[in-house]
Write a structure and sequence with these properties.
Elements lengths: L8 H6 L9 E5 L2 E6 L2 E7 L2 E8 L2 E2 L8 E10 L3 E10 L4 E10 L3 E10 L3 E3 L1 E2 L2 E4 L8 E5 L5 E5 L10 E4 L1 E6 L2 E8 L3 E4 L9 E5 L8 E3 L4 E11 L18 E8 L2 E7 L9 H7 L3 E6 L4 H12 L5 E8 L5 H14 L4 E8 L22 H7 L4 E9 H6 L7 E7 L7 H22 L3 E8 L32 H12 L6 E8 L28 H12 L3 E6 L5 E7 L3 E8 L5 E14 L4 H6 L3 H4 L3 E8 L4 E7 L1
Helix pairs in contact: 3-4, 4-5, 8-9
Length: about 650
């Protein structure tokens, strides 16, 4: 453990020593809220969350969010009222944003924003967004007041809507758990989208409709003013959680009808494992190698895959990007030749025109040239023995807007940091993922549902020119290289992502690459990797052990979990002679799990981190505890084996 001496726990948890924004709690009577980095979170009334967040993000021309710097703050906080005033600067002072948040014990909350441009400023969006929670909201009635005074009776959709939920909004009224919630918007035209598309755990009412031109300019001297007023009344209709924690009930495992998803590991150009790490790739023993290729990169990728799998039974799954300048039939034939030359038997293929790596609104305009469904006949000709995929190589919004027709399986990927990259939002994305999986399963119907890379970082940016560079390894949206990939955070998050597939019959999914920004095996990168730079040769990230354990569970009979402590998620599988179980604590406090029988327990946490990252075989080599009580610190992961 010498490696850990003097190192802050932040590096272990998050892969970065950068502190997260301060999160401060305020209340006025039964109204409570938090504020973090200029955004209001979790507005609650009598303990019921009625609004998930109110913020004033400023987007650039690629939809990335500008960082803002707090330069002034004033707070008035009494038992009955609160007022928070902040002045924040964006883009080195190009935009000055003054925010005032006022809350009262009578159930009123008001947010005002004044945005002043000091010079020419290009943006895709500047102004308020309001996030609606999902719990007690999905599928419930919604009344919408429009700018002409008319009122529309609608509802929050149950399955994820590919289009805007509502437009021309000046007012909303709905109920959350028995709490009457009225919201008024002023100063801009607002509309609502189903933000679950991007795995956000919310619906979002935002300003400047997507139908208006973008990006647009704010000129020096321009001043924009906006206001949101919220009024909540009533008392909760449901039973609230007990304020004091009690001894958790025993963990209950019940047989179901699903299998644990088989695990794939992705490979792509720029992240091909060298021979030094092939042994570790073999130790992973993934069920599937998911290769993203073009006609140009296919030969090297196929040769590397052949070397990695050797005599392994791992299946080969191709994600083929067909360049817009290539003839699709010839391009797919070239990839098939590369596979044949490497003696790779291909199990499944998804081919997509390059232009469909970008996102389009449901009404278009859509790109010219071949459409995804046009490539099916060429795929079948080049790969006659393979299953043919339908879907996208990006994320669920693109699948939801371009739904596949004739195919054997449906697929898409996922990223947790399209809109926000703070720790709370990333963890909340797991709630959104369960809705994504439910809606995608409905689209897939009777076909296989197979997930591509499901990770925190953004593999590609369908909404702009490229992903955001992150050499400083900060918590920022739309980056490939997220520092949490190296910490306990990603390991715990990945358990939550697999847990979210329960009930949705996901056949397979990828949680990582071998190396690179989405890797689980350490390799030098252009950015610093504290705790790994001076370590042993065969260092791995905590996520390595999670992926390896889940890979062993893949394809076995899944057991459903119930009666676990707050913040605990898990995946369980029943085998002939034992039950495997992996648990993670996504919360910020210690949580407890009581088992019905004694188990062999290994815990990945701050104390074991140093040993785990230096030993790829840590799950086999570390001493196991035996017991029936498991205590998990924040972001810790427990690996359990129980005899059946």
């Amino acid at each position: 453990m010498v490696l850990m001496a003097g190192k802050p726990d932040s590096l272990i948890h998050f892969g970065t020593a950068e502190p997260p924004p301060a999160d401060r709690a305020f209340s006025a009577g039964p109204l409570s809220l938090h504020i973090s980095d200029g955004a209001i979170r979790h507005i609650c009334w009598h303990g019921v969350e009625v609004v998930r967040g109110v913020a004033c993000p400023i987007r650039d021309a690629n939809w990335a969010t500008h960082a803002s710097v707090l330069v002034e703050e004033g707070i008035t906080d009494t038992l009955e009222e609160l007022e928070i005033t902040q002045v924040r600067l964006v883009a080195d002072g190009a935009l000055r944003v003054k925010l005032i948040f006022k809350g009262s014990s009578d159930g009123t909350f008001r947010a005002t924003a004044e945005m002043s441009a000091s010079r020419e400023f290009l943006t895709n969006r500047a102004g308020f967004t309001l996030l609606h929670p999902l719990h007690d909201v999905v599928g419930t009635p919604l009344r919408i007041t429009h700018s002409d005074g008319s009122v529309t009776a609608s509802q929050f959709p149950s399955l994820i809507s590919p289009d805007q939920v509502a437009g021309d909004i000046v007012g909303l009224r709905h109920s959350v758990g028995g709490i009457d919630t009225q919201i008024v918007f002023r100063g801009e035209v607002f509309e609502m989208e189903d933000q679950r598309n991007w795995s956000d755990a919310s619906f979002k009412t935002y300003c400047r409709p997507l139908s208006l031109p973008r990006p647009y300019h704010l000129h020096a001297g321009d001043v924009l003013r906006q206001e949101i007023q919220i009024r909540v009344q009533g008392t909760p209709s449901g039973k609230l959680p007990a304020a004091n924690a009690t001894c958790p009930a025993a963990l209950d495992l019940k047989a179901g009808t699903e299998m644990v998803p088989r695990l794939a590991v992705v490979m792509e150009d720029g992240a091909i494992p060298d021979h030094r790490v092939h042994r570790l790739c073999g130790l992973m023993n993934p069920a599937i190698l998911q290769l993203r290729v073009t006609p140009e990169t296919a030969p090297a990728m196929c040769d590397s895959a052949r070397s990695i799998i050797a005599d392994s039974p791992a299946e080969i799954e191709l994600e083929i990007v067909v360049p817009s300048t290539d003839d699709p039939q010839a391009a797919l034939s070239r990839v098939a030749t590369a596979c044949k030359n490497a003696s790779l038997a291909v199990a499944r293929v998804l081919a997509l025109p390059e232009s469909y790596l970008h996102s389009y609104q449901p009404a278009g305009p859509w790109p010219s040239g071949p459409q995804p469904q046009d490539l099916g006949k060429y795929v079948r000709a080049s790969f006659p023995a393979a299953g043919i995929g339908g879907g996208v190589l990006t994320y669920f919004p693109e699948l939801n807007r371009c739904r596949p027709d004739h195919c054997d399986y449906v697929t898409h990927g996922s990223t947790a940091i399209t809109h926000a990259a703070d720790d709370i939002s990333v963890m909340e994305s797991l709630e959104g993922l369960s809705h994504v999986f439910k809606s995608a399963r409905a689209l897939a119907k009777e076909r296989d549902y197979r997930l591509g890379l499901t990770a925190i970082g953004m593999r590609s940016n369908p909404y702009g020119a490229s992903v955001v560079e992150n050499l400083q390894q900060s918590r920022i949206a739309m980056v490939r290289a997220d520092p949490r990939q190296r910490g306990l955070f990603a390991a715990a998050w990945a358990v939550g992502a697999v847990a979210a597939t329960d009930g949705h019959n996901v056949s397979s999914m990828a949680l990582s690459a071998f190396v690179g920004p989405f890797g689980i095996i350490h390799r030098p990168q252009a950015w610093a990797q504290p705790l790994y730079q001076q370590g042993a040769v065969d260092m791995v990230y905590p996520l390595f052990h999670v992926v390896r354990f889940l890979a062993q569970m893949g394809g076995t009979a899944r057991l459903s979990l119930s009666a676990v402590d707050k913040g605990i998620v898990g995946v369980a599988a029943k085998e002939a002679s034992r039950t495997r179980l992996i648990l993670a604590n996504l919360g910020t406090c210690v949580s407890h799990v009581r088992l019905l029988q004694k188990a062999e327990i290994r815990i990945l946490n701050v104390d074991s981190f140093g040993s785990a990252i230096q030993s790829p075989g840590w799950l086999d080599e570390s001493d196991a505890q035996r017991g029936s009580d498991v205590a998990l610190d924040s972001l810790s992961v427990a690996f359990l084996n129980m005899p059946t």
